[in-house]
Write a structure and sequence with these properties.
- The chain is of the alpha/beta class and 267 residues long.
- It is 32% helix and 19% strand.
- The protein contains nine helices and eight strands.
- The chain has an eight-stranded mixed sheet, sandwiched between helices.
- Helix 2 packs across helix 4.
- The chain is globular.
- The chain starts with a strand and ends in a 5-residue tail after the last helix.
Length: 267
Amino acid sequence: MITETYHLSKTNPDVTLTAYIADTYEGAHHRAVLVIPGGGYRLCAYREGEPYALEFLARGYCTFVLHYSVMGAAYHPTQLIEASAAMKLIKDNAEHFYIDPNSVFVIGSSAGGHLAAMLGTMWNDSRIYDAVDMPFGYNKPVGMILCYPVISSGEKAHVDSFRKLLGEKFGDEQAMKEVSLEYRVTENTVPAFIWHTATDNCVPVENSLMFAQALAEKKIPFELHVFPSGSHGMSLCQKNLDSQNEYNAAWIRECEHWMDTLDPISN
């Protein structure tokens, strides 16, 4: 394994993309996963960053962990632009990373799930292309994996995530609705794998249910798993991450099956 870290912002040195490159060979074309950690837009949580990267690396993917602007360093749409810049870097260097540029997934957890879902629903936002010089659709992932995601800014919102994301615009009706992603699903939205726990007392499961309903209404393919119990932020559901739950840990296996079904050519 090789790791390389790249800086994505000229103004914020904390915005980085760390690549985990599989041992490979000339002519290989691995699939790739952009990993977006959670943390309520206050921080980028380790347990939803490198552990995910290493798990998918062991399953044959090249992985990339994004550390994006948090804690008021920048506000929406900056984080969406940073995620798009990360996708551009990954695809621009596909030959170096030995990946298939047409087979790049995104995974995000909690607030990172919100950012991943923004990329999956709002990849065509014109503000991205004003900031990042790339072909239209270059930042579009082949599919999005959302782990107990923040979705709605409404009654079931994780309020602090939206406060950190929007800054002074928090509470503005138009700004709040723009980042309430059950309203952003269109026929251009990418397929989704979603998992949550019914007992999540931080980001209510209704966030995933509302998003799945929106996907269903637009006939966007999705797979949804709601596990009967478990706290928020379970990550890989492993003992070393203080979240051991053998039953819920099945999400990673089911996710890989979904990825294989969605992207069979590269598999």
